[in-house]
């Protein structure tokens, strides 16, 4: 697992005016928290954040965060949430979660379908219903994607979450055996898996 380097500073002022001042000076307000970490208001340089996300994306990033003036010189964190404006052009706020590399955490990982299925060759359509799945594992065991081979799927076949085996070290928590992907007839489609569409977890909100 690669740790990306990022610098940060402690924020001494709070509120919308202070956040606006930071953004006008090439910094993004952020917060650091964790299971054993009290929330710490920080800021990160906007150019550094833009470069990091442009190169690596924003999903499943683990960072070596050096915070000036902090009690710890470096903290291992996960990029938990990035808030942008309605156009997606400007970063408004970032959440970092401190992690212990030896402890399991919940991570959201994209789903990747591979192979050309029997059903698609016959004219059916592949429909990915869940493009991301939550998994529980140690950071070092996190896969970049959850790969599902569709080669043997015919029209009407589906892959449910309980059928996905990522090994003994990775769990996909679920209360309902919902559909992850399916092969539908030409012109068909499903709005969603009524039994499986669980309410998304509400991310921790951080005040500015």
Describe the structure.
The two termini are 31 Å apart. The protein has two domains: 4-98, Ribosomal Protein L25, Chain P; 105-184, Beta Complex (RNA Polymerase Alpha Subunit, Chain A, domain 2). The protein is mainly beta. Strand 5 (75-84) and strand 6 (91-98) form a beta hairpin. It contains three helices and twelve strands; from the N terminus they run E-H-E-E-H-E-E-E-E-H-E-E-E-E-E. The strands form three sheets. Strands 1-3-2-6-5-4 form a six-stranded mixed β-barrel. The chain has a three-stranded mixed beta sheet with strand order 9-7-10, with no helix packed on it. It is elongated, with a radius of gyration of 20 Å. Residues 191-207 have low confidence and may be disordered.
- Helix % is 10-25%
Biggest β-sheet: count, sense, barrel?
Answer: 6 strands, mixed, barrel
The helix tally amounts to 3
Low-confidence parts: 191-207
Write out the CATH superfamily name of the largest domain: Ribosomal Protein L25, Chain P
> What's the pLDDT, averaged over the residues?
87
Question: Which structural category fits the helices and strands?
Answer: mainly beta
Q: Kindly report the oligomeric state of this protein.
A: single chain
Using the coordinates shown, work out and report the CATH topology of the largest domain: Ribosomal Protein L25, Chain P
Strand content: 35-45%
Radius of gyration: 20 Å
**SSE pattern, N- to C-terminal:** EHEEHEEEEHEEEEE
Report the principal-axis shape.
elongated
**Strand arrangement in the largest pleated sheet:** 1-3-2-6-5-4
Annotated CATH architecture of the largest domain: Beta Barrel
What gap, in angstroms, lies between the N and C termini? 31 Å
Whole-number tally of structural domains? 2
CATH class of the largest domain: Mainly Beta
Number of E strands = 12
């Amino acid at each position: 697992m690669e740790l990306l380097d990022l610098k940060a500073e402690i924020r001494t002022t709070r509120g919308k005016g202070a956040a606006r001042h930071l953004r006008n000076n090439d910094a993004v307000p952020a917060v650091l928290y964790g299971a054993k970490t009290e929330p710490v208001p920080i800021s990160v340089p906007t150019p550094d954040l833009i470069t990091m996300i442009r190169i690596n994306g924003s999903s499943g990033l683990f960072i070596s965060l050096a915070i000036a003036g902090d009690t710890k010189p470096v903290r291992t964190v996960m990029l938990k949430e990035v808030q942008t404006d309605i156009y997606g052009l400007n970063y408004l706020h970032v959440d970092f979660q401190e992690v212990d590399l030896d402890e399991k955490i919940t991570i959201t990982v994209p789903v990747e379908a591979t192979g050309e299925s029997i059903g698609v060759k016959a004219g059916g359509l592949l429909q990915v219903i869940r493009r991301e799945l939550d998994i529980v594992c140690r950071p070092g065991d996190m896969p970049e994607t959850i790969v599902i081979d569709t080669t043997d799927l015919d029209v009407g076949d589906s892959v449910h979450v309980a059928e996905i085996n990522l090994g003994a070290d990775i769990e996909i928590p679920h209360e309902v055996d919902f559909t992850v992907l399916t092969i539908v007839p030409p012109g068909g489609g499903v709005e969603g898996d009524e039994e499986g569409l669980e309410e998304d977890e509400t991310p921790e909100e951080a005040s500015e």
